[in-house]
Amino acid sequence: MLAKRIIPCLDVKDGRVVKGVSFVNLRDAGDPVENAKFYDKQGADELIFLDITASHEKRKIILDVVERTAEDVFMPLTVGGGIKTLDDIRDLLNAGCDKVSINTTAVKDPFFISRAAEKFGSQCIVVAIDAKRVTDDMSDATGEDWLDAQSLKDVRLSIPIPSVPSLRGGGNGGLWAISTHGGRKMKLIDAVKWAKKMEELGAGEFMLTSMDKDGTKDGYDIELTRAISEAVSIPVIASGGAGTLEHLYDGLVYGKADAVLAASIFHFREFTVREAKEYLLSKGVAVRL
User: How many Cβ atoms sit within 10 Å of the Cβ of residue 46?
Assistant: First the structure.
């Protein structure tokens, strides 16, 4: 049995770690390299940097952060945020990161994932999926020309949305749409079908975030996580909603995720990575200690 992974996540803005609630009231929370060293000593399996000011002009800042981190930290490092070109990927990999996470650019141009995988290998291409449970008031504001392409149009959610009973009953519980631009733009694209399509096009891993659960600390969206984990054969990282060690267990066991991502519970020292792994091991989950 492959060991399950515990992955802390750090939001990086202008070269500093920041923390806030729902992307507002951001406050400085330290140097990303020092944070990375801290998690490395705790035994984190990987680390994710999300560059939240990743404009072209500021790309050099995160490259410097990656270079300094790679000098002192030897766990795998993934960087996401603002990746638009193959050159962006090359620069980040050359700086020392192991994987890149791509969301908005994949939605704008799905075949970018194919080109990236062919150029750099699927193992370093992570597709980030920010998914939100479909509601009856969602309108079709997708606006992506490629949705009419014969090989891709099956990922579109039809309008009006058909009622799909949730496993827990009620509403459109079995359907999720995806979003881009850090959750600011909804796309009527079926998250499960999108994941399958991204795997076909060369993605090597998914970072799956539930927008409904993100920041709530009341647990991952288990139904969403399980639906995508069962639909694809590549690893799925569950994200959004971790508040207790039990939530990590639920995401791995009931959600069938290969890894769990958490931010606040580790960053604010509610739990250490070591405590999380010892808890999971006591519950029969294979982890690396």
Answer: 19
Rounded Cα distance, 113 and 196, in Å: 13
Tokens (6 digits) for 112: 């970018």
Per the annotation, the verdict on 11 as an active-site residue is yes
Out of 45, 51, 88, 130, the active site residue is 130
- Contact call for residues 230 and 256 (beta carbons, < 8 A): yes
- Tens-digit pLDDT profile for residues 20-34: 555 556 777 789 999
Instruction: Please state, in angstroms and rounded to a whole number, the distance separating the CA atoms of residues 260 and 267.
Output: 15
pLDDT at 56: 66
CB proximity list for 285: less than 8 A, separation 6 or greater: 4, 249, 252, 253
Distance CA 257, CA 252 (A): 5
Active site residue 130: yes
Write down the residue that tokens 């060293």 correspond to: 37
- C-beta neighbour count of 253 within 10 angstroms: 15
Q: Which helix (H) or strand (E) holds 234?
A: none
CA distances from 165 to 27, 169, 175 (A): 41, 6, 9
- Read off the pTM: 0.91
